[in-house]
Amino acid sequence: MKKGKNNIEMNVSRETRDCLEAFITLVERWNPVINLVAKSSVSDIWHRHLEDSAQIIPLAQLGAHWIDVGSGGGFPGVVAAIILKETAPETQVVLIESDVRKATFLRQASVMLGLNCQIHNARVESLDLPRAATVSARALAPLPKLLQFTERLVEEGGVCLLMKGQSYREEIDAARQSWSFDCDVIKSLTNANAAILEVRNIQRAA
To answer: How many CA atoms lie within 13 A of 88 on its CB side?
Structure first.
């Protein structure tokens, strides 16, 4: 995997990089069967998906659990688990994925890569989980809907890291019609039109 001029620098150990590369190989192997990522992005998967996911890790709060909602092909949840395996091995990454085949892939990746993960093949609204210091989601649902999920998953004082495309400002405005929350907008390092929403203190609007 070659690094292009737009790629971000990842300061990880050789062992962690090897694990990340092994994960990408798994994604590439499974993708023709269950469409983990868009076919058009496979040739640039390291930058478009892995580095895009990894940029949220410095923003996370680390505790007993990190919950990733709608984990899909493992971006960002599995990427986080791989990096935390070295830097915070006590943090368990909880992956929630409703699609049976994608959940099967996530279990396979977790076992093969020796990750501290728990995988739930279920819709997030059906689960009763311990709250987490960090909740993440990438390209899952509009922000008003995401806040319904994350409000009951994040612990008091915790953070939700929600990865959004170019309509993020409109989504924030729409969410404020029903929700009260603090939100810092952090521009994506991998996509000039995207952003990470660092959301805290979520409450239903009065």
So the answer is: 16
Give the Cα separation of 72 and 187 in Å (integer).
23
Mean pLDDT, the chain, integer: 94
Whether the CB-CB separation of 88 and 112 falls below 8 Å is answered with no
Using a cut of 0.70, tell me whether the model's pTM lies above it: yes
* Residue that has been written with the tokens 């994925």 in this structure: 97
Distance CA 180, CA 177 (A): 8
CA atoms within 13 A on the CB side of 8: 18
Beta bridge partners of 118: 94
Domains and CATH numbers, the chain: 14-163 (3.40.50.150)
pLDDT of residue 4: 37
- Alpha-carbon span 112 to 115, nearest angstrom: 8
